[in-house]
Amino acid sequence: MILNKDSAKKTAELLLQINAIKLSPESPFTWASGWKSPIYCDNRIILSFPEIRNYVRTEMVKQIKQLYAAPEVIAGVATGAIGMGVLVAAAMELPFVYVRPEPKSHGRKNQIEGYLAPGKKVVVIEDLISTGKSSLNAVDALRSSQADVMGMVAIFSYGFDVAVNNFEKNEVNLHTLSNYSHLIELAIANDHLKEEQLQTLLEWRKAPDQWKP
Question: What is the CATH number of the domain that holds 57?
Answer without folding.
Answer: 3.40.50.2020
